Structures are given as structure tokens and as C-alpha cells.
Amino acid sequence: MTSADLTPQTPAPATAGSGPEALDAILRDNFAPWIQRLGLRVEEAGERRTVLRLPWSDELAREGGGLSGQAMMAAADTATALAVCAARGGFVPMTTVQQSTTFQRPVSGRDVLVDVRITKLGRTLAFAEVTLTAEGATEPAAHATTVYALLG
Amino acid sequence: MTSADLTPQTPAPATAGSGPEALDAILRDNFAPWIQRLGLRVEEAGERRTVLRLPWSDELAREGGGLSGQAMMAAADTATALAVCAARGGFVPMTTVQQSTTFQRPVSGRDVLVDVRITKLGRTLAFAEVTLTAEGATEPAAHATTVYALLG
Amino acid sequence: MTSADLTPQTPAPATAGSGPEALDAILRDNFAPWIQRLGLRVEEAGERRTVLRLPWSDELAREGGGLSGQAMMAAADTATALAVCAARGGFVPMTTVQQSTTFQRPVSGRDVLVDVRITKLGRTLAFAEVTLTAEGATEPAAHATTVYALLG
Amino acid sequence: MTSADLTPQTPAPATAGSGPEALDAILRDNFAPWIQRLGLRVEEAGERRTVLRLPWSDELAREGGGLSGQAMMAAADTATALAVCAARGGFVPMTTVQQSTTFQRPVSGRDVLVDVRITKLGRTLAFAEVTLTAEGATEPAAHATTVYALLG
Question: Given A119, A145, A147, which is nearest C145 (Cβ)?
């Protein structure tokens, strides 16, 4: 995201609360149409941990059959923003400062679970670790660390 | 990308050569449909430097108006893959190992130029720096460093 | 490290085995004198997880009293190299490809435990996550992701 | 660094100004003794660009002969802090938020020039790119991106 991304003109009532439904609403109301196409769904939402599902889609892969790493990076960023909202108890304007992602194993034909752990929620900065794992796998497909600036 | 992404079942003739047209063909033939939606176009292709254009699109932004950072991360990864093909003189199977991205300035209503400089092209690993700048701006919107594993 | 760092002229007998003592010997025999000054000690060594202790020292801090982040980055890199040796059952020549580190909390007057988890041990690349936590603390002081190229 | 590192009990008169001598004084007064051992010297100091020299020393290498990557990471972090001071016209308390470093070429027997370019100097965050090149070489030995939080 860039700083404008999560700064709605007017606070959306949909963003009250921080359960999976509230986060799904924040996702629907605050992210780009191109990001909506990822089909991300919030599976768990908690103060320290939030989990999203990235459903398998041929749109995100190629005839070679692998899930694009770009989709995993985008999912990690989006999931972190929602995890911060969950940790803060509702929508909060923020901007991504830095994301570092490693790609460790290919994914093909399976959903990916995007597991975000907030490791530091400061007044102005939030830090998270994101582990992306193909459903049913034990080892990660990718891992990201993310840093966000909190604007409100 | 993940390792499968750039491994076509059969080498595509379109991938011969390494000029802008050849790279546009590699982009069209080897990336996910979701990535095609970015509308990336190759502006320059060289042994050490390749430049892509990420056209402004409301699909990549939100009513707040900012270009999504996820689109910039995806553009940086895609541009690096194409820059490695340009440096190697044609399509080469590869996989992203690591990408680190910083987000420095919001972008709104303007195309972004994605400028890739290959800093090391080894036998098995390639390193690049990617600077993303809104057209007409002098300061970067984002910056990425990328590491790729070359599979062929 | 750079590629030369862990390539001894002749394999050192001290590097046989992969318990804490063997890793301490690898550390003593293969790292720069400047790194020896960190006083790192191996506390645990396993196939997937290795833990080092970075003892508190005023040499690593300043009158302001905080442990330098540079010492934490160096400890994370060193600990990853030893963790790969532990995972491979003995010394293996390798080179750092990439390290991304976030700094989340200051440390003062306490040892730091450097906990390395190998998340992927491939034929040519190894990936790890490193969590640095002040002794007695529950939240991390710093976190690193590391990528190594295995040369043997 | 951690947040304590550059917060002196009392502002040091040595930190007035921002030329090479002033930055050398900031380095001497504000960094850990272990960092002083790197022998870093400020070669250039400007608003947007600062260059340090990391002199070759066997203390930073091993009998294999390669400069330790840990020394290059530490030099990049230290150089960024000094570059921010140069950009702000004098000492400013700050803390490292994130550093991402790639290691591209080994260095042996030569000084390394640490070239910092400040790409964004905001009110609360600073971003920089750091290129480390062995003296006389044209290609980088390592590259780092750094993010700092400005505390004053």
C-alpha cells in the first residue's frame, strides 16, 4: 500500500469491530480492485495473530502451474494491514514502509494460508512476520517481514 | 514468481531475442493472467538496464487515490525477471529467491517507470536494484532489491 | 560472510560433528577476529533449530546504554551459518546471499538469545528465520531472515 | 543501532556541523567501542550523499581471506546514521528500523567504499541506499537499503 491507500474520505461504518467479518469489510472497502481479484478471505482475526486464505486460482498462475510470487507478496502485505486493524480493534489508516519476502517452495493447485503474527505494535510503527503455507503442507512456501507506519 | 512460473512446457519461439518486443512477448507468454492486468510495457531493454512502464489505472488504486504498493512490488519482480532475460539474451527459467521493497512516496494519477539495474549476473544467482518513480517525478516512489535463482 | 569466509584451506578436524562444542569450534576456526569479540556461545544445536547466546558487553553498547543493532545483525548472520552446519551435520562452506533485519525493541544490560530456525535446506540455498530476544523478555528485540548459498 | 544508541545524555558539542570532521566526531562519540574497531573514516559528507571508507584489516577477515559480510552490514548501518546527520546538518537521535543487505562479490585485501544516498528524508522516517564497493572495483561487493526512525 501507499499512504493514501487506507485513508478513506469518510470513516466507513463497515470498519467497526475487528472480527473476520469486519476485516473482510475493511478489505472490500479499502483495497484496490486488482487486490480484490486475489479473492482473499479472513479465516481468523485476533490481537496478535490473523490468518487469511488465498484461494487457488488459475488467474494467479501460469500454464507452468506455479502460483505467482507476486500474488504471495500482495497477500502478505494485505494480510498485515488487516492484522494491524485486528490488533487495534478496527480500521486504522497506515502505510507500508518495508516488506522483505523470501520464496522457499513452489505452490501448485492449492490454497495458501497467510498467517500474520504482529511482533510489535507501537504508537507509530508496527512490525509483523507473515508465513505463507500451502494448505496441507508443513513447510512454508514463502515468508515475509513487514513494517507499517500507523497514521492514526 | 515461484520456480514453476518461468518454466514453460515447451520453449516459446516468441522468447527469442531480447529487445523490448521480445520481452513483451516473454511477459505475455510466461506470467499469470493477474499480472497481465498490470498492463506493464517494456520501454527499454539492455544488458545491464531494463525499464518498464506501469500505466496508471484506477484498478490498481482505491478511492483514496493511491497506487497500491502491492502493484509496485509485483511490477518490480516482473521487471527483474524480464531484465535478466534481456541480460541473458533471451528467455531463461528462473525463480525469485528474495525481494526487499521500501515504500517512500505515494503515487496518484501517474504512470510509474520501473527501472531495473542488474548488479550481478552470476551462473546461478542474479541480483538487481529496482527504482520505481512516478513519471515526471525526480524522487523514487519505491525501491526494491531482488535476488533470483537462474535455473538454466 | 562473503564466499571466502567459510572456505578453509584444509578441512579442520574440529568441524566434525554438529553439537554445541563442534559449532563453537567452527565459530572459533572460521570467523573473523572481530566477530570472535562478540563472545557468541552455542547453547543449542539441532537439525532445525540452533540457539546462540550473545553475552551483554559494554563493548557492544554506548554510554546511552543500548546494544548496537550492528551486533545483532552480525550475531544473526553468524548464528545462521552455524545452524546450517548443525543441520548438515558438520562444517559446510557457504556464503550469505541476503539478510533482512528489523529492529523492534532496545536491549540494555542483558544477554540476547539468538534463535535460528532453518525453514528450507535445499541443495544450493538455505533459508532461515532468526529471532533475537533479550534474556527474560517475551517479545523480540530484533528479527532477521537470512538466505545462504551452499557451496559444498 | 537500537533506539538508545544515538540518544546522548547531553548534546555533545562535537556534533555541531556536518562536514567529514563533524561526522567523524559523531562516530567517535556515539557508537559502540566494537564499531570503532571497524576503523571507519568519513571521506565525503553532503546533503544527499555521504561516503565512508572501511579500511582493510585482517581483524575483519579470516585466513580464507574474505572480508566478513557482518563488517559490511555494520558499515552500511553506521554510514546511514552519519549520512542522516549530514543531511540534517548535525547530530540527530535516530534508530534503525530495517536493513536489507545483499552480498554480491567477495572482497579481499582492499578497502571498501561505503556510498550512502539518502532517497527520502521525512519528518519521522529516513530511507537510504548503500552501495559497498572494493576500492578500484567497478561492481558492488554488497548493497543495502536502510530505514531509520528519526527521534528528534
Answer: A145
